[in-house]
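Weekly structure sync, notes
Attendees: PL (lead), two postdocs, one rotation student
Agenda item 3: pending single-chain targets
PL asked that the sequence for the first pending target be pasted directly into the notes so everyone works from the same version. It is reproduced below exactly as submitted, 353 residues in total.
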Amino acid sequence: MKNVALGQSGLNVSPICLGTMTFGEQVAEPQAWAILDRALERGVHFLDTAEMYAVPARAETCGATETILGRWFARRPGARRQVVLATKVAGPSRGMPWIRAGQGLTAADIVASCEGSLRRLQTEVIDLYQIHWPERHVPAFGVRYYDPAQEVSQTPIRAQLEALAGLVRAGKVRAIGLSNETPYGVHEFVRLAEEHGLPRVATVQNPYCLLNRSYENALDETCHRLGVALLAYSPLGIGLLTGKYDAGGTSGAYAPQGARLERYAQVRRQRWGRPEALAAARRYNQLAREHGLTPTRMALAFCYTKWQVASTIIGVTSLAQLDDNLDAWGTQLSPELLAQIDALRREWGDPAQ
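Predicted structure, written out during the meeting:
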């Protein structure tokens, strides 16, 4: 794997990123360390986490993932220097008062969250610090339409940028990014940064997979023209695109023991739990098998080879899953198969948007 540049940040990362949100919930600390060791051995030196992890979010596990990573760094001399470390400041609480008391995302919130992440991660600097979701109202996490009546923004984008700029000047953050953003949001962050001499966002971390290609509806052009790199998350649709749910009925009730859709009711209620998402996933999985591929390999190869994607964030719960995900690197999808994938999208749309 050749390194890729993250926008104009000067950061160069592996084109596969290890997402860690399962660490501290589905994955215990010793197994998490083993996964981290293996990923580094196999050339994955880009790690992504967040202050609110583990997921699904609970007060008891908030910050647990960063803590596990910090302990791994402390016990693996030199590991911190080998990796590009990304984490995220949570946006407005969205019903999670344990993250912060207020409903907005103030400059003070950003600074306090960064300080907390630095402590838990046992590091002096965060390479990429991202806003996990916008402070303003946006269609995200299964909400498909923008509704101006829902606007409750309290902190202007410029104020958020100035807080991040202070962290960069202090040497606590190297580069900044966004997550779950819209074309307007990316453009406005870049415009204000250039107008006021503030740090320019390097990345946007948004969902991108066979079940949700909404990034291709204008945001890809925005990022291409502005030099902002996509970090694609949920490339396997939290497991729907692995085939492990294919044996059940149309209700989606079937799931292997331990799978997130089986363990966590709140996940079932989100975009990935929609019956149409499961039905579409089964059709994509069938297409993969028709072409002699496993569903996992086709879904990952789709992300690994798209020009829109700088780095694909994979999330695993075992060494076997990690190896399977990494072994998919280098798989090329034929023009015929890509045309059939596009035909399915025209039929099914983006059911997990």
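Discussion points:
- Strands lie at 4-5, 12-13, 16-19, 46-48, 84-89, 126-131, 173-179, 201-207, 229-233, 309-315.
- Residues 128 and 224 are 19 Å apart (CA to CA).
Action: rotation student to compare against the earlier draft before next sync.
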